[in-house]
Amino acid sequence: MLNSISDARDILATQQYIASDEISTAMFLADRLGKPLLAEGPAGVGKTELAKSWAAATGRELIRLQCYEGLDETKALYEWEYAKQLLYTQLLREKLSDMLGDAKTLREAADRLSNEEDVFFSERFLLPRPLLQAITSEQPVVLLIDEIDRADAEFEAFLLEVLSDFQVSVPELGTLKAKHHPTVLLTSNNTRELSEALKRRCLYIHIDYPDLEAELRVVQLKVPGLAPKLARQAVEMVQRLRGMDLKKHPSVSETLDWARALLELNSRQLDKQTLDTTLSVLLKYESDIQRARRALQGGAGERPERGERGDRPRGGYRGSGSEWNN
């Protein structure tokens, strides 16, 4: 168990995860209070990486449930291995024949067979999915419920028992309680509003794009071979792009991809040719690429329009003037 917020920051640092004060506090409280943590924010800002880093730092197994539209409890909780049950039935055919052979009526045979149902509906034939794996694990684990906003509201409601009591109900076996409370992290990209019931059961943190200096530290840590001047130029350009009205702003993971690309290309400075040929590493829509090129060629950059997509990220940076040398 952690003793202080700095402990949380320090153990994440062992996995090269730079945690802000807000993230360190949230992880400390989630650990001490034993409550799930819901992390919301744009895609690619390190929400999933937080769970991976926490699992690695604490020496716990990471169990990941990737959410998607149509996900139901059979894919998240458990399934019965019907093929295995059928195989056992065939192997035990002679035994079943002996047991039912002297039954005088069909009802009597059915009654005898029903008394043996526990053999075929036991944990021997249960195929655990991520939620049940986390509940029944013999050791404490980290359970990552990734992109919960992509799942249906019905599945979200199903999760409430797990998040409240750390237990699941299997009709054939009864209620299975967690042997060890898992550390639960849920992530959301805000594609839909989550229910108040779910949020009430979780601690909450919003992870936004980092400011210039924080993102630069990430790049220097993850791509140490990149020249310091070029690293700063690259991060300044990414921050500037996030200030534009684009369909999809570059994420931190894309910043790192771009930094690695610049390193592989042996780039020494961010000139016009380098930017033109590598901009697609950052931007994934042709309309965004063309808009960015027009804005950057204009020198001062585009000011974002007022509205949801045009809002400037917290701690964002907008460069002034051209970022390259012709």
Q: Would you mind describing this structure in some detail?
A:
The structure is a single chain. The longest helix has 15 residues. The C terminus is likely disordered. The chain is an alpha/beta fold and 326 residues long. It contains 16 helices and nine strands. 48% of the residues lie in helices and 12% in strands. It folds into three domains: 150 residues, Rossmann fold; 44 residues; 87 residues.
Instruction: Give me the CATH fold name of the largest domain.
Output: Rossmann fold
**How big a fraction of the residues is strand?**
5-15%
CATH architecture of the largest domain: 3-Layer(aba) Sandwich
User: Helical residue percent?
Assistant: 40-55%
Uncertain stretches of 5 or more adjacent residues: 300-326
CATH class of the largest domain, anyone? Alpha Beta
Record the strand order, biggest sheet: 2-5-8-1-9
Q: Over the alpha carbons, how many angstroms does the gyration radius reach?
A: 26 Å
- What does the average pLDDT come to? 84
Distance between the termini: 56 Å
Overall 3D shape? elongated
List the total number of helices: 16
How many domains comprise the coordinates? Answer: 3
CATH superfamily of the largest domain: P-loop containing nucleotide triphosphate hydrolases
Output the helix-strand order: HHEHEHEHHHHEHEHEEEHEHHHHH
Number of strands: 9
What kind of sheet is the major sheet?
A: 5 strands, parallel
